[in-house]
Amino acid sequence: MKLATTSSSTRLLTLSASADDFVIEDIAFDINQTAAETWTNVMVQINGAKNVHLNRCRFLNSASSAFFAANRGYGIYLNSSYDTVLVTGCYFERHMYAIVTENSSAGKNVSVDNSSFFELSGDGVEINVPTGSCDNVTVTNSVFNYLGSNNIGRGFGVGASGATIKNVQITNNDFYFVDNQGVHIEDGCQRVIVSNNYFESCGTAATASFGSAIYVAAGVALNRAISDVLVDGNIIVSGTGTDYGIWAAGAYLTNNLSVVNNSVNGVGNGIGIVINSANAKTTCTSNKVKNSLGVGVRYNSLSGLLCDNFCWDDQGSKTQTYGIEIQADARDAVVRDNNIAGNINKGFLLSSLTFPKNIQSDSIVIDS
User: Fold this and answer.
1) Is 270 in contact with 243 (CB distance < 8 Å)?
2) Which residues pair with 25 in a beta bridge?
């Protein structure tokens, strides 16, 4: 299904509210315009339909023979009160946004599995509902490769932000060369799991804002605070220009954040893990962080647990100055059993005159 090059402001296929129980298989959708308008050129719009399954479909822009920042158009546009949209085995290439929500949509049950996202000038899966809502989103077993166009507002692998977004799971995916953030969890998100993903050279765009593999931060309004986020078992290899491995440092509260069992290799770029004072009840445990530029872990959560982390530098020319930096607001955190040997300065950096109340110095390894 291909849009004529002379056409514009077109939707190739729209499934309205009455178009329920649709299965679309083995169809190629082609926007066929390198400069197509973003919002009005859509390959598939799901406008309130229920029980839609897109299987082994291809979404592309055949007018583009290479990756261009000017590529426009949407693959799948989720609008109105959609319910149960399954995307399996699909391929998205050389347009702007692959799967994206309308700002005020109120949908639920979105599942993306075993799909590929390649050379998009925008985002892969973006659940962005500032005046709407979404419940139950899963993105699994998929690959995101070369996303973004060195633009501060684009270039995200999987993102969620809005008035209310609940029950998000992002698991077993691969992210390569995603300009801004591989995964970003923002305002209004509740009950989120980001686990067992692989990130390489994400957050490297020159114009990136807090370029990172994983970004967890509420920055719009206090009533859109984030809660109950688990970041577990991810492998992160930074690239030249990466700012952070995991950034959890928004302007508003993130409650019950757990950053556990992750492996971050800075390769001489950026700080490994940052958790700031907008967070409370933060668990940062059993992470392996090496070769950062600066400190391995910067921790400033109002309360929580900082333990069993291993932070070191095994480069010939070391760049990781300290294993862990503890800042002023982390007075009520429990700190124990961290191994911070092998950094340039062999220990903790305390950037405050206030020592944490619950630090257990006898269980800290600081000798090289």
Assistant:
1) yes
2) 55
